[in-house]
Amino acid sequence: MINYLKYICLLWILLTPQALLWAETETPPDQHEGASVNITADHLSQSGEQNTIKAWGNVIVFYQDRLLRADRVTINTESGMGEAFGNIYLKTAEGSKIRSDRTLFNIKSEQGQIFQARGSINEEYLFKAEKMTRYSDTHYSMENGAITTCRGKIPDWLIETESMDIIQGDRILFRNLKLKVKDIPILYFPIGYIPMDRTRKSGLLIPSFGSSNTDGFTLQNAYYWAISQSTDATVYIDYLSKRGVKPGIEYRYAPADTVRGEFRGFYLDDDNDSKFWKVDMTHVQSFSNGFNFNGKLDLESDDGFNKTFENDTDQRTRRQTDSFASLNKTWTNNTLDILTRYRDSSQSQRDDTLGQLPQVTFKTQRIQLGKTGMFFNQESSFTSFLADLDTRETVDDHFTVQRLDFHPQISLPMNPLSWLTFTPTLGIRETVYSKGRDASGKKFSAFSRESFDFRGVLEGPKFHKIYEPAGGSSKFKHVIEPRFVVDYIPSTDFDDRQKIHTFDQVDEVDPKSLVTYSITQRLLTKDTGSENVDQSREALRFTVSQSYDLREDERAPSTTPNQPFSDLRVDLDSRLYDSLLLNFDAEYDVHDSHLSSLNLEVGVQATDSLTMLLERRYTKNENTFWSGTIDWAFKKGWKVQYSSRYDEQASTFRENDLSLLYDDDCECWGFTFDFIQRTLATGASERDETKFMLGIKLKGFGSISSGRDQRLIHRTLDDY
């Protein structure tokens, strides 16, 4: 509704004082260089006593590529009042054509009214109005008007309003707005406020709506408030027919280029006797001394707001809230990070608290030590942990411990042969704990753990060959890269290991004696970029790898046989053509002769209008999921998307998404329709949800949203 209104002012260009006052002068004021006015009429008279100019009979006025026609024009040069009536026709260089029966104007106040207006604006919008009023260059109103971008005696859609008050570049106020489709009313708004400045103006946002078998009919209402140049807010009042009213607020601020943040809060007193709430806050700031702050507040009700209302799968299935504040600084080769983090369970009937209050980490990136050829890097950290080791909601077992860890490493890349690279890395580790606790709950006083680690990486030789296929196809390069890695960590004191409660990978310094070997094959090709410059592209990468555990091989025989070989890992990523995707990875247990995991991704763009994608995720002793997407532009302007997620073990579809889109540039309207059917997990229980969402696009006016949040499971080739 915003775009066309700025053109309404064109109607008044010829009704301003200059355009009509020039009728009494032979040469008009030259406000625009080269501007001229030409007035013709069957009759033209001027009355000095009555200060009146009259023109009648085929009155035609030309000014700056604009044309005005009327049967009769009268103006009082003293009061400035004037009138034009009878077959008024206005045409502008921009393509606007407007007809009316009568107009009143004042050449001194530059105000006026036009009655029974109808026509087209900017060759796109068709409109009619009983009365249009001009108050100033930027302030207009329209009464009993209608507008559309559709042609035809009965347009496909039409917007009617009882009244509309427009301040150009600011806002629109309207009363009794109706949206009609084929002359049938389908939407009604009794009163409304629309910002005309799309950058940042306060106003009501167009409501969005949908339907769900768990929430019922949903209507999302929002008001956008541009508080200042650096702050704004959105207030939500959503209605869920089966649950109640869900208010919410979003507040955003950016007082400087280096500072920004957002606060979000939602609440629902469910009609089913549950209370849901969620609070999110983020703050990012860069300081002049080089420090950067990043903070997040993440809280939600025990009933699981995300599980119940979030459409995002990652948010819906998460098990913990995560609040943190981080202050960090980066130098050329060093980084300092000060972190406080608090995680809490978002699952009902579970208390799973973990806090790092705080954690200070100082890292040195790999730097060369003078001219020795050796490189040095290190990571040191201090952490104060707080944890509730009893996950039962009604029982607390708080445990706090402070940990200091120092881990420097030295490496020395060597080339014993021109085609062979060997890089050994040696590190030492000292970790001090303020207290300990074993699995039985017994506590210990302060202690330390000492260890060292060694890694040796052997790379080469690399083999490569360039192929030039017949028929003029692009040549490609085949590369083969073998790699061997040795990792060694000695066994630490057994008593010390029993005292350590594991919080992260620093605590998990288990003895290791591992050899990993792999071979990688690559196909490299060249594509011509946008500037006709050849760019190398990896069209295929295939890696086979496995590890051999020397400690497992030397383990004394027991009830379980020695199994020193890890799973055999195979990983294929390929995009030989833009229209073909094939990714594959698998792990095979060589001891028990079975697949441990198998993941497959296949994508084909069969034609310019049809794309198909298929995924399979398998892990032994876990659920196996299939997911797929079909994207088909089956007719000009029409597109259908269908995506599904199938649980192989349960033999059921966990989610089905169907979207139908119509958007033809040659038409004056379009729409989107989304159907979602899925099973949501809430704690130990499951519930089915069916949701319908509809969006309507009116050419030249924007869209009436369906509430679609782009969180459907549809995928494209570009997502991989």
Automatic annotation (TrEMBL):
Entry's Gene Ontology cellular component terms: cell outer membrane; transporter complex
Domain LPS-assembly protein LptD central: 173-559
Any GO BP annotation: lipopolysaccharide transport
Domain of life: Bacteria
Pfam families: LptD_2 (PF19838)
PANTHER family: LPS-ASSEMBLY PROTEIN, LPS-ASSEMBLY PROTEIN LPTD
Name of the protein: LPS-assembly protein LptD
Organism: Candidatus Nitrohelix vancouverensis
